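cron nightly-structures :: item 1 of 1
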Amino acid sequence: MNTGGALLEFFEAVGGLGEKLAPVLFQLPPKLAFDEGVATEFFTTVWELHLGAVVLEPRHASWFTPAADRLLRSFKIARVAADPPKGSESAAQPGGWPGLRYWRLHGSPRTYYSDYDEACLQAFAKRLQSQQDSSGEKEIWVIFDNTALGNATGNAIRLEDALRRSKTGR
């Protein structure tokens, strides 16, 4: 797998963002199984071209194993926690490098459409707060991808409000 040229082109294109460049997300196709040699080659190329944060969203069950998790940690690559999970129920939990936690919330039960209700967002805010409290060193990202009916923006605002309330105890 020779992806060096495409990766170089991509990182040159986004390089102008400088410090504003958020973690770079690589989403894998559902049929792409974990192959340690191929993954090592790809991650090595990524790190030769990019020093910033990297997140991987695998969707094949073979990526949710101790071997895959060890490899991700060795390259300081976080694994996405997705809702609904794809490939494995383990996909609902963040993995890989623990210095970065990254959630992609696609809407549940109907992917890209469903709104997250208040109870769900409150529970998620508590979970995020406990993650942050356990180590102030973690960088935490939450991306709402339930955009088909415009729910993502409202969900993000309500989650931010719930997190603010949990910090102030209100």
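cron nightly-structures :: done
The first helix runs from residue 4 to 14.
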